[in-house]
Amino acid sequence: MKTHSELDRLMAMYSGAPLAVRAYLRARSAAVPFREVSAALSAEARSILDLGCGHGQLANFLALCGRRAHGIDLLPRRIAVARDAARGRLNSTFSTGDITGPLPAGFDAIVAIDCLHYLPLADQDRFIKSCFAALPARGRLIVRTIDADGSPRFVFNALHERLSALAGLTARPPRGFHFASRQRTADALSKSGFSQITSFREKGFSLYTDTLFVASKPAEGQGTPPPPSLTAARASGPWAAGG
């Protein structure tokens, strides 16, 4: 569970970052689903691959929780901030790389928060297939996407993403943003071979259509693993199961 003390510890790791970066990370920390991701990971998942990790907040949080995390991002300046924050910690590492290429194996789980919409839809499908190939049996993929449901909230969410990119707070994809509906993302996960696919949306009023997916890679010749439970995280948290 994410407590104020854990958040303070995480932000303290970024004390050497530029003021503008610290302000951005402080604001973003309210939107990153630290607690939900941690709850969705199985107890056996000790090594986590964080794709599109940005400044490394989630990877560093998981390292603080005792897991081994490695983050990959396309932008060297963000990786430099993540590495500086993790300095002295052996269980939190980062590298610059293109997440649309072959993914490293050897991790128990993969997380990808707010990065699918940077890829064209066909590339999103290939990315999900690459995650499936890189994961071991019963490994979990956790992704958060923006649900292109056509609602006013989605329009605001998409505008927010574009303005953030124009302001230089996030990356500017060369081919623009590509938002997929929740159903399309669920279908892509299923077609790639994942099972026990569960999606969660924020409870109550929200300005955004962020959707968290948790999917498991089945073990060959065995039953599929039980669906991930976020009950403990949701008890006092903002997410609820969706269709």
Explain how this protein is built.
The protein has helices at 4-12, 19-28, 34-40, 57-64, 76-85, 121-134, 152-166, 182-191, 231-235, and strands at 47-51, 68-73, 92-96, 109-113, 140-146, 195-202, 210-216, 239-242. The chain is an alpha/beta fold and 243 residues long. The protein has an eight-stranded mixed sheet with strand order 3-2-1-4-5-7-6-8, with helices on both faces. Helix 5 links the parallel strand 2 and strand 3. The two termini are 25 Å apart. Mean pLDDT is 88; it is low at 229-237.
Quick structural gist:
With 243 residues, the chain is α/β, with parallel strands linked by helices. The protein contains nine helices and eight strands.
- Percentage of residues in strands: 15-25%
Sheet having the most strands: 8 strands, mixed
Determine the CATH superfamily.
Vaccinia Virus protein VP39
Task: Please give the CATH class.
Answer: Alpha Beta
Our count of helices gives 9
Strands in their spatial order, largest beta sheet: 3-2-1-4-5-7-6-8
* Unreliable residue runs: 229-237
> What's the structural domain tally?
1
Can you give the helix content as a percent range? Answer: 25-40%
**Structural class per helix/strand content?**
alpha/beta
What is the number of beta strands? 8
The name of the CATH architecture is 3-Layer(aba) Sandwich
The shape, in one word, is globular
